[in-house]
Amino acid sequence: MERPQIAILGAGIFVRTEYIPRLAQISQLFTLRAIWSRTEESARGAVDIAKEFFPEVECKWGDAGIDDIIQDASINAVLVVLAAQFQVDLSLRLLRGGKHVLQEKPAAASITELETALSSYNSLITTLPYQPIWAVAENYRFEPAFVEGTKLMADIGDLLNFQIIVEAPMNSSNPYFSSSWRHSFTGGYILDMGVHFTASLRMLVGCEITSVSAMTSHVDTTLPPPDSMSSVIQLENGRSGVLVTVVSSKTLKLLWRFVGTNGTLQINFENREGEYGFLVTLFMADGESRSSFYPLSGVNEELKAFFHDVSQAILKKDESFRAEPRMSYAEGGRDLVVIDAMLESGKKLGALVQVKKT
Fold first, then answer.
1. For the chain, what is the radius of gyration of the CA atoms?
2. Do 38 and 44 touch, CB atoms closer than 8 A?
3. CA trace torsion 136, 138, 141, 143 (10° rounding)
4. Residue closest to 117 by CA, chosen among 83, 144, 93
5. Where would I find the beta strands (DSSP E) of 236-330?
6. Residue environment code for 315-331, b if the CB has 16+ CB neighbours within 10 A, otherwise e
7. Backbone φ and ψ of 149, nearest 5°
8. Residues 279 and 255: beta-carbon distance below 8 Å
9. What is the pLDDT along the chain (358 residues), one digit of tens a residue?
10. Contact at 8 Å (CB) between 246 and 168?
11. HSE (CB half, 13 Å, CA atoms) of 305?
12. Are residues 75 and 33 in contact, defined by beta-carbon separation less than 8 angstroms?
């Protein structure tokens, strides 16, 4: 199977601290050709880190650097890891140039942009010999804990209710606090982070979200509004539950709890002796329980899946292969519309809002 030749657009914190180390662990699956940023200084900073693992990687920056990547027919795929406001336009430029794209979440900066992007992407089949892959990097769908949790949902019987609690301190000590784009981004950290929790919820319950009602508040003025959101969620199967998100907390807690007729499934984010991951616990009606801890590996798994899909696309050069549905652009869009509906409801003081279908 042919190894994809790839480039990375973006040289920020997530590229330097997550993408480059994770890519180094699976370097046998691809060849890293270039890293691009808007400025030479930023691009060189990331390239200097990457050269330890990828000595041949080239530095690209500015408009000329983007053009070089698009026009280089040997580059098959591009990882787009930029501020959310700029990702979609650049992703579409790359797709029109025949590149396969893995774009960081969220899928778009607004619903209008999402709808326009989907229309543009779907029309590519009329101008290109095949439709390139457009994937969204939603690593929660690839976390082993959520893959296992999805299987265990059958053991709790019919779902009665669910609760998701998110306490995520996004204060000045958090490295992502300094990312200015999140502070000028509608929905701020609640939207950027929130798609993880709608993705995991939709995956675990196996159905869509039809309507939401949310109350929002803005207490910490160093953060973009809102910094707290409490949402009641209605599923298409008739069940309901809550998602409570606070990004101005001083404590870190991520908890999923699904209550069924035969038992309860709980997933907790934990730090075990310096290793972060998720503890999955199944509580049964007879009082018995069983637990398993799964270290974080979703970013690695999603990257592996993307490179596998690109290799298949290179080999078949047509629509006969099927890309991984968990990371499709449309799937990422469905995560986004749920958070957007919650934010809209919050502005309307908790009014019921129907979730748009994409």
1. 20
2. no
3. 130
4. 93
5. 240-246, 253-260, 263-272, 275-284, 289-295
6. eeeeeebebbebbbbeb
7. -60, -40
8. no
9. 689 999 999 999 999 999 999 999 999 999 999 999 999 999 999 999 999 999 999 999 999 999 999 999 999 999 999 998 999 999 999 999 999 999 999 999 999 999 999 999 999 988 888 899 999 999 999 999 999 999 999 999 999 999 999 999 987 666 655 566 566 677 889 999 999 999 999 999 999 999 999 999 999 999 999 999 999 999 999 999 999 999 999 999 999 999 999 999 999 999 999 999 999 999 999 999 999 999 999 999 999 999 999 999 998 876 667 899 999 999 999 999 999 999 999 999 999 999 999 8
10. yes
11. 24
12. yes
Give the bridge partners for 217, in sequence order: 228
Is the link from the previous residue into 144 a cis peptide, with omega within 30 of 0? no
Residue in the block written with tokens 């469905």: 334
At 108, phi and psi to the nearest 5? -155, 170
* Amino acid present at 212: V
Tell me the C-alpha to C-alpha distance, in Å, between residue 85 and each of 4, 36, 60, 182, 237.
27, 17, 21, 9, 34
Q: How far apart are CA 89 and CA 198, in angstroms?
A: 24
